[in-house]
Specification:
301 residues, globular, alpha/beta, 9 strands, Spore Coat Polysaccharide Biosynthesis Protein SpsA, Chain A, 41% helix
């Protein structure tokens, strides 16, 4: 039986999902299965996936659900998963040729370590060039949160989790909303577990115009409950005063972003939510100013 599930949530990506499929067919190690949860696509995704299944090059499991959001699709994938390892690869992205092999080679180092939730490796535009910085030197393990905050890593990663741990950390679901940031789960896992760091590019990607990454501000406005749940969790998890002050400032920026005084009033940190207002406003207006400058070609970023 396979040890690794490569999970792909998809929605109307029939025009590009073949790139992901072909990268999986090129893997030097075929010891994996591809689990696809289709979030109610209305294009020809189902026909395309069926054609892949008929080619019989790799093992594929396909499940279609009512359109509910990527986080609900992720929950479904985790609950369906029967392998020891689980990694999410979006339908518009793909893996380096040796990605599965490197994951399997690393697995024995973490399999029986109860303090490790999985593996972190790098994303890149190609197999040599990481998006952002490399992994911190001489550091073999870190929580996801500390990688960014303590070791000042800047960039994107691929996260390979122990499935048994992911099953304990499903995404919250809010009625009427279709998005919850992945950081909600990652921050929860960071409170108890470290990850094994691998300084290699395993995940290749580019950000499309119809993806979440390029439309995140509008996504937050359409899904305020999930967004504010994430920001509230950041405040609650912060231990030091400086970190809590920063988290409350981002919470205030979030309130401004979704245009809600309700959430501001609901914040329990009475003193902090007053002294954090200036920083919160700055956090809120900074991307607006940047966007305006780029729009009118006054500056390049």
């Amino acid at each position: 039986m396979e040890k690794l599930t490569i999970f792909t949530p998809t929605y109307n990506r029939g025009y590009i999902i073949r790139n992901c499929y072909e990268s999986l067919c090129r893997q030097s190690n075929k010891d994996f299965l591809w689990l696809i949860v289709d979030d109610g696509s209305t294009d020809n995704t189902e026909d395309i996936i069926n054609s892949f299944i008929n080619e019989d090059k790799i093992k594929i499991i396909y499940h279609k659900q009512k359109n509910s959001g990527k986080h609900v699709a992720h929950n479904k994938g985790v609950l369906m998963c029967e392998t020891e390892m689980f990694v999410c690869v979006d339908s518009d992205d793909y893996l380096s040729v040796d990605a599965v092999q490197i994951i399997h080679e690393t697995w024995p180092n973490i399999e029986n370590d109860k303090s490790l939730a999985g593996i972190i490796a790098l994303r890149g535009e190609d197999a040599q060039q990481a998006i952002g910085t490399r992994m911190p030197r001489n550091i073999e393990r870190s929580s996801i949160l500390n990688l960014y905050e303590k070791y000042k890593f800047k960039g994107d990663t691929i996260l390979i989790f122990k499935t048994a741990i992911l099953k304990k950390y499903l995404f919250p679901v809010f009625e009427g909303e279709k998005f919850v940031t992945e950081a909600v789960v990652y921050d929860q896992i960071s409170q108890k577990y470290d990850m094994k760091l691998v300084d290699k590019v395993l995940y290749l990607c580019e950000y499309l115009d119809d993806g979440y990454s390029k439309n995140i501000l509008s996504v937050h406005k359409k899904n305020p409950k999930g967004y504010m749940f994430y920001l509230t969790q950041k405040v609650e998890n912060a231990k030091k005063f400086r970190d809590k002050y920063k988290a409350v400032a981002y919470y205030i920026a979030g309130c401004l972003g979704i245009r809600s005084i309700f959430y501001y009033r609901d914040c329990d940190y009475k003193l902090l939510k007053i002294i954090s207002i200036p920083r919160g406003i700055l956090i809120y207006v900074k991307p607006i100013i940047k966007s305006t400058l780029v729009k009118y070609k006054l500056v390049k970023f």
